[in-house]
Amino acid sequence: MNVSDARVDDGPVPEYRWVLPSVLLGDGGEGRPVRRSTRDWIVDVAVFLVACAITLLGLPEVQDEPAALLLTEQVAGALSCVSVWLRRRWPVALALVLMVVSTFLELAGGAGLVALFTVAVHRPFKVSGPMVLLYLATIPPYLLVRPQDGMEPLAWGIVVTAMLLTVYAWGIVVRARRQLIWSLRQRAASAAEEAKRLERERIAREMHDVLAHRISMLSLHAGALEFRPDAPAADVARAAGAIRASAHLALQDLRQVIGVLRHPGSGDGDGDGDGQVPERPQPTLADLPSLVEECRQAGMDVRLEQRADDAPDGLGRNVYRIVQEALTNARKHAAGQPVTVTVTGVPGAELSAEVRNPLGARHLPRIPGARAGLIGLAERAELAGGRLEHGPTPEGEFVVRARLPWPEKETAEPMAERAAGERS
């Protein structure tokens, strides 16, 4: 159901997340016209019929009264039942009027109970609480004006009090239920918005990690062609081929991300049968040598020292992205400088990735950046339960160092022993 089409006790409401709880609980506001939905009409007709039924049940009690008083009772009872249709627009005012009338006239009691119920449902406790106390305060004068034959005043007072408190408690329960439903809907809407935000951040992070790497490769090769126009034809052809390959890979990555954004479960595009766009295989720690080789082919001087190969896929993917972004930053800010990548770690301790390069010369042109790469890496490391350190060193180098927890891998034998113990 569309949020803008949602209806509550007072009719259609505006955008859901901006609606006050009182409006969602049927509080249309004093004196404001009320637009009833089909459900509202059904409820109002039912309430009107209940008020009429209670009034008709009270007719035998007033048959022996004088003609003038009997006519007054009948007119007041009819008008009270009709006034129930105003309960949504003026609930508090209607309840006060009917409270006074029902204190002296028997046939207005049914409409008074309906008015009290309406206030309990549509108004907070700071309004409905004093209202029910006023109703209870009218019981003694009612007992004096309307004594019941064959019943002690105390017993009749207990019956009337029980009726008022039961109707009020029912209204409070209805209001509490509506508040609970409203709260659950708000939580669901907030959870949906949070899920969308996290997914957007994930896609943005992946786009930055992948496209920044591809585009920096394009810039590097294009810069080489710009500064070496007299290069041999073979070198020019090789650089042009690298530019074409990097552009093709960048377009592929961009097309997949746009496909995810454009067809989220709709079944269109290139997705599979259930409408989900298939994700391309994610890199792991085993793909680091290929990344380093790609950078070397682009002209970078990169040395890899990898002493950890069997990390879990999720952990390896985080390390791969961190190294990829660090190499991209090295190409941007320290072009032509040697870069050392060191990956070490053991299960049960941590996996460490360090990218180290001399600080670049300040007079060399640099590839512009969004200054969001290191922030994204820090967030990725924190989400993985680790930490990221980066900055210049006294030796004149720039270091990016990530330390991520590496849970100890369970062997098959302990797992089998634990399963046997659970079965026993």
From TrEMBL:
Residues 199-264 form the Signal transduction histidine kinase subgroup 3 dimerisation and phosphoacceptor domain. It comes from the Bacteria. The keyword Phosphoprotein applies. Its EC number is 2.7.13.3. Keywords: ATP-binding, Kinase, Membrane, Nucleotide-binding, Phosphoprotein, Transferase, Transmembrane, Transmembrane helix, Two-component regulatory system. GO terms for molecular function: protein histidine kinase activity. The chain crosses the membrane at residues 41-60, 93-121, 127-145, 154-173. It catalyses: ATP + protein L-histidine = ADP + protein N-phospho-L-histidine. Residues 262-284, 405-424 are annotated as: Disordered. Residues 406-424 have a biased composition (Basic and acidic residues). SUPFAM superfamilies: ATPase domain of HSP90 chaperone/DNA topoisomerase II/histidine kinase. The keyword Magnesium does not apply. This is histidine kinase. The gene is liaS11.
